[in-house]
Amino acid sequence: MSSSPSDTAPPPQTMLTALGAALIGLQKRMFHEKFSMHTERGAALSAAADLDEELTVTIKKHMIDSSLKAMMFKEGRPLGNFGTKIQVAYLLGIISKLIFEELEVVKRDTQ
Prior knowledge:
Blueprint: H1 5-8, H2 12-24, H3 28-35, H4 40-60, H5 67-72, H6 82-91, H7 97-109
Helix pairs in contact: 2-4, 4-6, 6-7
């Protein structure tokens, strides 16, 4: 018996917890080390890039194995930008409305 993608993907609550942890769980030492060498703007952009990458990883975990997966996340492709990833993750129930709204603020403030 073969399993469907939904049988092998972690439950949405697990992904929500992981993404929430990425948003609020940076340890103080790591945060200081990473962002103390940046200007405020540079630190914000670096944090947004980290969140973008975490969102990419989270969405990919919900996809079947396919050569299309990597292609979809390249620049200029359907999931190649932060804003689209935020919307898709929310619409698929991977992130909550609260996290969606917070990520939208991050996106807006780092454009």
